[in-house]
Amino acid sequence: MNDSAILEVEDLHVQFHLELVTVRAVDGVSFSLKRKRTLGIVGESGCGKSITAMAIMRLIQSPPGKITEGSIKLRPRHGEILEITELNPTSLTMRNIRGAEIAMIFQEPMTSLNPIYTVGSQIAESVMLHQGLSKKEAFNVALEMLRKVKLSAPETRLKQYPHQLSGGMRQRVMIALAMCCNPLILIADEPTTALDVTVQAQILDLMGELQASFDSSIIMITHNLGVISDIADDTAVMYLGKIVEQAPTRDLFNNPRHPYTQGLISSIPVLGQKGRKKLVPIPGMVPSATTEIKNCAFEPRCNKRKPECLNGIPPLREIGSNHWVACYNH
After folding, report:
1. Which residues, including other chains, have CB under 8 Å from residue 316's CB and lie 6 or more apart?
2. Interhelix angle for 119-131 vs 135-148, to 10°?
3. Residue at 221 is within a domain
4. Which tens digits make up the pLDDT trace of 189-232?
5. Residue 329 included in any domain
6. What's the pLDDT tens digit per position in 234-287?
7. Is 223 helix (H, G, I), strand (E, B) or coil?
8. Which of 80-83's residues contact partners 24+ apart within 8 Å by CB, and which partners?
9. CB of 57 within 8 A of CB of 104?
10. Whose CA is closest to 11, among 60, 58, 63, 52?
11. CATH no. for residue 229?
12. Which of 195, 245, 308, 309 could form a disulfide bond with 199, CB atoms 3.0-4.6 angstroms apart?
Protein backbone atom coordinates (compact mmCIF):
# COMPACT_ATOMS: atom_id res chain seq x y z
CA MET A 1 0.00 0.00 0.00
CA ASN A 2 1.25 3.48 -0.91
CA ASP A 3 2.68 5.21 2.18
CA SER A 4 0.79 8.45 1.44
CA ALA A 5 -2.59 6.70 0.97
CA ILE A 6 -5.13 6.05 3.70
CA LEU A 7 -7.45 4.10 1.39
CA GLU A 8 -6.44 2.02 -1.61
CA VAL A 9 -8.92 0.29 -3.92
CA GLU A 10 -7.39 -2.11 -6.41
CA ASP A 11 -9.12 -3.98 -9.27
CA LEU A 12 -12.50 -3.94 -7.52
CA HIS A 13 -15.29 -5.98 -9.12
CA VAL A 14 -18.88 -5.96 -7.82
CA GLN A 15 -21.52 -8.10 -9.49
CA PHE A 16 -25.22 -8.68 -8.93
CA HIS A 17 -26.28 -12.22 -9.83
CA LEU A 18 -29.93 -12.04 -10.81
CA GLU A 19 -32.17 -14.86 -11.98
CA LEU A 20 -31.45 -14.50 -15.70
CA VAL A 21 -28.48 -12.11 -15.96
CA THR A 22 -25.37 -10.92 -14.15
CA VAL A 23 -24.94 -7.17 -13.69
CA ARG A 24 -21.30 -6.05 -13.67
CA ALA A 25 -21.84 -2.88 -11.65
CA VAL A 26 -18.16 -2.26 -10.86
CA ASP A 27 -15.69 -3.77 -13.28
CA GLY A 28 -12.06 -3.38 -12.21
CA VAL A 29 -11.90 -0.02 -10.40
CA SER A 30 -8.60 1.13 -8.86
CA PHE A 31 -7.77 4.37 -7.03
CA SER A 32 -6.14 5.66 -3.86
CA LEU A 33 -7.15 8.40 -1.43
CA LYS A 34 -4.53 10.51 0.34
CA ARG A 35 -4.81 12.11 3.75
CA LYS A 36 -6.64 15.48 3.86
CA ARG A 37 -7.41 15.28 0.11
CA THR A 38 -10.72 15.23 -1.74
CA LEU A 39 -11.24 12.72 -4.54
CA GLY A 40 -14.15 13.37 -6.89
CA ILE A 41 -15.77 10.44 -8.67
CA VAL A 42 -17.92 11.57 -11.58
CA GLY A 43 -19.93 9.88 -14.32
CA GLU A 44 -23.39 9.28 -15.72
CA SER A 45 -26.10 7.60 -13.67
CA GLY A 46 -25.56 3.85 -13.49
CA CYS A 47 -21.80 3.93 -14.05
CA GLY A 48 -21.02 2.34 -10.66
CA LYS A 49 -20.12 5.36 -8.51
CA SER A 50 -22.48 4.62 -5.62
CA ILE A 51 -21.87 0.87 -5.74
CA THR A 52 -18.13 1.54 -5.36
CA ALA A 53 -18.88 3.57 -2.21
CA MET A 54 -21.22 0.89 -0.86
CA ALA A 55 -18.52 -1.74 -1.44
CA ILE A 56 -16.01 0.31 0.58
CA MET A 57 -18.56 0.48 3.42
CA ARG A 58 -19.35 -3.26 2.97
CA LEU A 59 -23.04 -2.43 2.52
CA ILE A 60 -23.60 -4.49 -0.65
CA GLN A 61 -26.61 -6.71 0.02
CA SER A 62 -25.72 -10.36 -0.50
CA PRO A 63 -27.46 -11.99 -2.27
CA PRO A 64 -27.74 -10.81 -5.02
CA GLY A 65 -24.67 -8.51 -4.76
CA LYS A 66 -21.11 -9.64 -4.18
CA ILE A 67 -17.55 -8.34 -4.31
CA THR A 68 -16.13 -10.94 -6.69
CA GLU A 69 -12.55 -9.65 -7.02
CA GLY A 70 -10.27 -6.92 -5.78
CA SER A 71 -8.82 -5.34 -2.70
CA ILE A 72 -9.86 -2.46 -0.41
CA LYS A 73 -7.11 -1.53 2.03
CA LEU A 74 -7.62 0.97 4.86
CA ARG A 75 -4.87 2.55 6.93
CA PRO A 76 -6.68 3.32 10.23
CA ARG A 77 -5.50 5.89 12.77
CA HIS A 78 -4.24 3.15 15.03
CA GLY A 79 -3.15 -0.39 14.29
CA GLU A 80 -2.20 -2.24 11.14
CA ILE A 81 -3.53 -1.87 7.60
CA LEU A 82 -6.91 -3.58 7.21
CA GLU A 83 -8.12 -5.53 4.18
CA ILE A 84 -11.81 -4.58 4.20
CA THR A 85 -12.86 -7.24 1.68
CA GLU A 86 -11.77 -9.94 4.14
CA LEU A 87 -13.96 -8.62 6.97
CA ASN A 88 -17.44 -9.91 7.66
CA PRO A 89 -19.85 -7.03 6.92
CA THR A 90 -21.66 -7.66 10.25
CA SER A 91 -18.51 -8.16 12.35
CA LEU A 92 -17.65 -5.87 15.27
CA THR A 93 -14.49 -4.71 13.44
CA MET A 94 -16.46 -3.60 10.38
CA ARG A 95 -19.13 -1.96 12.52
CA ASN A 96 -16.42 -0.01 14.32
CA ILE A 97 -14.91 1.08 11.00
CA ARG A 98 -18.26 2.50 9.90
CA GLY A 99 -18.64 5.83 11.60
CA ALA A 100 -15.31 5.94 13.43
CA GLU A 101 -12.97 5.46 10.44
CA ILE A 102 -15.26 5.81 7.38
CA ALA A 103 -18.57 7.68 7.41
CA MET A 104 -21.04 8.18 4.59
CA ILE A 105 -23.54 10.86 3.63
CA PHE A 106 -26.24 9.19 1.59
CA GLN A 107 -28.00 10.68 -1.41
CA GLU A 108 -31.45 11.12 0.14
CA PRO A 109 -31.40 12.13 3.83
CA MET A 110 -35.13 11.57 4.32
CA THR A 111 -34.72 7.84 3.69
CA SER A 112 -31.40 7.64 5.59
CA LEU A 113 -32.62 9.21 8.84
CA ASN A 114 -34.92 7.17 11.06
CA PRO A 115 -38.35 8.87 11.05
CA ILE A 116 -39.35 7.67 14.55
CA TYR A 117 -36.32 9.07 16.41
CA THR A 118 -35.39 12.68 17.04
CA VAL A 119 -32.37 14.19 15.33
CA GLY A 120 -30.50 14.44 18.64
CA SER A 121 -31.09 10.81 19.63
CA GLN A 122 -29.77 9.54 16.28
CA ILE A 123 -26.53 11.52 16.54
CA ALA A 124 -26.15 10.67 20.25
CA GLU A 125 -26.57 6.94 19.53
CA SER A 126 -23.61 7.01 17.12
CA VAL A 127 -21.49 8.94 19.64
CA MET A 128 -22.30 6.48 22.45
CA LEU A 129 -21.53 3.50 20.21
CA HIS A 130 -18.15 4.71 18.93
CA GLN A 131 -16.89 6.93 21.74
CA GLY A 132 -18.31 5.21 24.82
CA LEU A 133 -19.78 8.41 26.27
CA SER A 134 -22.76 8.63 28.60
CA LYS A 135 -26.16 9.61 27.22
CA LYS A 136 -25.89 13.15 28.59
CA GLU A 137 -22.36 13.60 27.19
CA ALA A 138 -23.45 12.20 23.82
CA PHE A 139 -26.35 14.67 23.58
CA ASN A 140 -23.93 17.50 24.36
CA VAL A 141 -21.74 16.31 21.47
CA ALA A 142 -24.82 16.12 19.23
CA LEU A 143 -25.77 19.70 20.13
CA GLU A 144 -22.23 20.91 19.42
CA MET A 145 -22.22 19.14 16.04
CA LEU A 146 -25.50 20.81 15.05
CA ARG A 147 -23.86 24.12 15.88
CA LYS A 148 -20.81 23.23 13.77
CA VAL A 149 -22.97 22.46 10.74
CA LYS A 150 -24.62 25.88 11.25
CA LEU A 151 -28.13 24.57 11.77
CA SER A 152 -30.43 27.33 12.98
CA ALA A 153 -31.79 27.02 16.56
CA PRO A 154 -29.79 23.83 17.29
CA GLU A 155 -31.37 23.33 20.73
CA THR A 156 -34.79 23.12 19.08
CA ARG A 157 -33.63 20.95 16.14
CA LEU A 158 -32.10 18.47 18.59
CA LYS A 159 -35.62 17.52 19.75
CA GLN A 160 -37.25 17.51 16.32
CA TYR A 161 -37.96 14.61 13.95
CA PRO A 162 -36.61 14.43 10.37
CA HIS A 163 -40.00 15.22 8.80
CA GLN A 164 -40.07 18.54 10.66
CA LEU A 165 -36.94 19.75 8.84
CA SER A 166 -36.41 21.07 5.31
CA GLY A 167 -34.22 19.23 2.78
CA GLY A 168 -31.23 21.49 3.45
CA MET A 169 -31.63 21.07 7.22
CA ARG A 170 -31.80 17.28 6.89
CA GLN A 171 -28.64 17.29 4.80
CA ARG A 172 -26.88 19.31 7.54
CA VAL A 173 -28.08 16.74 10.09
CA MET A 174 -26.65 13.95 7.90
CA ILE A 175 -23.30 15.77 7.81
CA ALA A 176 -23.40 16.21 11.60
CA LEU A 177 -24.21 12.50 11.99
CA ALA A 178 -21.36 11.51 9.68
CA MET A 179 -18.78 13.82 11.31
CA CYS A 180 -19.76 13.36 14.97
CA CYS A 181 -17.08 10.71 15.56
CA ASN A 182 -14.35 12.56 13.60
CA PRO A 183 -14.00 9.95 10.82
CA LEU A 184 -10.81 9.53 8.86
CA ILE A 185 -12.74 9.36 5.56
CA LEU A 186 -16.06 10.92 4.59
CA ILE A 187 -17.88 9.49 1.56
CA ALA A 188 -20.47 11.93 0.20
CA ASP A 189 -22.86 10.33 -2.31
CA GLU A 190 -24.58 13.09 -4.31
CA PRO A 191 -24.98 15.24 -1.17
CA THR A 192 -26.43 18.25 -3.02
CA THR A 193 -28.62 16.63 -5.71
CA ALA A 194 -32.05 17.44 -4.26
CA LEU A 195 -31.14 20.93 -3.05
CA ASP A 196 -31.47 24.30 -4.73
CA VAL A 197 -28.32 26.04 -5.93
CA THR A 198 -27.98 28.41 -2.98
CA VAL A 199 -28.23 25.59 -0.44
CA GLN A 200 -25.86 23.46 -2.57
CA ALA A 201 -23.18 26.13 -2.28
CA GLN A 202 -23.70 26.37 1.48
CA ILE A 203 -23.41 22.60 1.92
CA LEU A 204 -20.20 22.44 -0.16
CA ASP A 205 -18.66 25.32 1.81
CA LEU A 206 -19.65 23.59 5.04
CA MET A 207 -18.01 20.32 4.00
CA GLY A 208 -14.80 22.18 3.14
CA GLU A 209 -14.77 23.88 6.54
CA LEU A 210 -15.39 20.63 8.40
CA GLN A 211 -12.72 18.82 6.39
CA ALA A 212 -10.17 21.44 7.46
CA SER A 213 -11.41 21.30 11.06
CA PHE A 214 -11.42 17.50 11.38
CA ASP A 215 -8.44 16.75 9.04
CA SER A 216 -10.61 14.27 7.12
CA SER A 217 -10.33 13.02 3.55
CA ILE A 218 -13.40 13.11 1.29
CA ILE A 219 -14.66 10.97 -1.56
CA MET A 220 -17.22 13.13 -3.39
CA ILE A 221 -19.54 11.16 -5.68
CA THR A 222 -21.58 13.20 -8.15
CA HIS A 223 -22.63 13.60 -11.77
CA ASN A 224 -22.17 17.38 -11.46
CA LEU A 225 -18.83 18.51 -12.89
CA GLY A 226 -19.37 21.98 -11.41
CA VAL A 227 -19.36 20.50 -7.90
CA ILE A 228 -16.22 18.49 -8.70
CA SER A 229 -14.33 21.52 -10.03
CA ASP A 230 -15.20 23.45 -6.88
CA ILE A 231 -14.29 20.92 -4.19
CA ALA A 232 -12.09 18.06 -5.50
CA ASP A 233 -8.27 17.92 -5.50
CA ASP A 234 -8.26 14.86 -7.77
CA THR A 235 -10.96 13.49 -10.08
CA ALA A 236 -11.77 10.03 -11.41
CA VAL A 237 -14.17 9.71 -14.36
CA MET A 238 -16.18 6.48 -14.47
CA TYR A 239 -17.91 4.88 -17.43
CA LEU A 240 -19.78 1.56 -17.28
CA GLY A 241 -18.11 0.34 -14.09
CA LYS A 242 -14.58 1.42 -15.01
CA ILE A 243 -12.39 4.46 -14.40
CA VAL A 244 -11.51 5.84 -17.84
CA GLU A 245 -9.53 8.90 -16.71
CA GLN A 246 -8.02 10.09 -13.45
CA ALA A 247 -5.94 13.21 -12.79
CA PRO A 248 -5.56 16.26 -10.55
CA THR A 249 -8.80 18.19 -11.05
CA ARG A 250 -7.20 21.25 -12.65
CA ASP A 251 -5.30 19.09 -15.15
CA LEU A 252 -8.42 17.11 -15.97
CA PHE A 253 -10.46 20.21 -16.78
CA ASN A 254 -7.66 22.03 -18.61
CA ASN A 255 -6.45 19.04 -20.61
CA PRO A 256 -9.00 16.18 -20.74
CA ARG A 257 -7.54 13.27 -22.69
CA HIS A 258 -10.32 10.68 -22.85
CA PRO A 259 -13.08 11.37 -25.43
CA TYR A 260 -15.72 10.65 -22.79
CA THR A 261 -14.24 13.25 -20.40
CA GLN A 262 -14.01 15.72 -23.28
CA GLY A 263 -17.68 15.06 -24.08
CA LEU A 264 -18.75 15.63 -20.46
CA ILE A 265 -16.86 18.92 -20.24
CA SER A 266 -18.21 20.07 -23.63
CA SER A 267 -21.72 19.49 -22.29
CA ILE A 268 -21.34 22.01 -19.44
CA PRO A 269 -23.28 25.23 -20.09
CA VAL A 270 -21.32 28.40 -19.25
CA LEU A 271 -23.16 31.67 -18.71
CA GLY A 272 -21.82 35.02 -19.83
CA GLN A 273 -19.46 33.84 -22.56
CA LYS A 274 -20.21 35.36 -25.95
CA GLY A 275 -19.46 33.37 -29.06
CA ARG A 276 -19.32 30.06 -27.20
CA LYS A 277 -20.02 27.05 -29.38
CA LYS A 278 -23.25 25.16 -28.98
CA LEU A 279 -23.35 22.39 -26.43
CA VAL A 280 -22.36 19.09 -28.02
CA PRO A 281 -24.20 16.10 -26.51
CA ILE A 282 -22.59 12.67 -26.39
CA PRO A 283 -24.47 10.52 -28.94
CA GLY A 284 -25.97 7.16 -28.17
CA MET A 285 -26.69 5.44 -24.87
CA VAL A 286 -24.57 3.75 -22.22
CA PRO A 287 -24.46 -0.02 -22.89
CA SER A 288 -26.22 -2.30 -20.43
CA ALA A 289 -24.14 -3.44 -17.45
CA THR A 290 -25.31 -6.97 -18.23
CA THR A 291 -23.39 -6.91 -21.55
CA GLU A 292 -19.98 -8.57 -21.53
CA ILE A 293 -17.59 -5.90 -22.82
CA LYS A 294 -14.64 -7.17 -24.87
CA ASN A 295 -13.36 -3.89 -26.36
CA CYS A 296 -13.51 -0.22 -25.39
CA ALA A 297 -16.99 0.29 -23.92
CA PHE A 298 -17.15 3.89 -25.15
CA GLU A 299 -16.18 3.01 -28.76
CA PRO A 300 -19.77 2.93 -30.17
CA ARG A 301 -20.35 6.51 -28.95
CA CYS A 302 -16.86 7.91 -29.59
CA ASN A 303 -16.27 10.50 -32.32
CA LYS A 304 -12.55 9.65 -32.40
CA ARG A 305 -12.78 5.88 -32.69
CA LYS A 306 -10.24 4.05 -34.80
CA PRO A 307 -9.77 0.39 -35.79
CA GLU A 308 -7.38 -0.20 -32.86
CA CYS A 309 -10.25 0.59 -30.45
CA LEU A 310 -11.48 -2.95 -31.17
CA ASN A 311 -8.21 -4.50 -29.96
CA GLY A 312 -9.52 -5.34 -26.49
CA ILE A 313 -10.27 -3.28 -23.39
CA PRO A 314 -7.75 -0.41 -23.09
CA PRO A 315 -5.83 -0.48 -19.80
CA LEU A 316 -5.62 2.54 -17.49
CA ARG A 317 -2.12 3.91 -18.22
CA GLU A 318 -0.20 6.87 -16.83
CA ILE A 319 0.43 9.42 -19.59
CA GLY A 320 1.68 12.28 -17.42
CA SER A 321 2.27 13.25 -13.81
CA ASN A 322 -0.56 11.46 -11.96
CA HIS A 323 -2.67 11.62 -15.14
CA TRP A 324 -4.12 8.22 -16.09
CA VAL A 325 -6.21 7.39 -19.18
CA ALA A 326 -7.83 4.21 -20.51
CA CYS A 327 -7.84 5.02 -24.22
CA TYR A 328 -5.83 3.90 -27.28
CA ASN A 329 -6.11 7.35 -28.90
CA HIS A 330 -5.56 9.72 -25.98
Report:
1. 30, 242, 243, 244, 246, 324, 325, 326
2. 120
3. yes
4. 888 776 777 778 888 888 888 888 888 899 999 888 888 888 89
5. no
6. 999 999 999 999 999 999 999 999 999 998 888 777 666 665 567 777 888 888
7. coil
8. 81/1
9. yes
10. 52
11. 3.40.50.300
12. 195
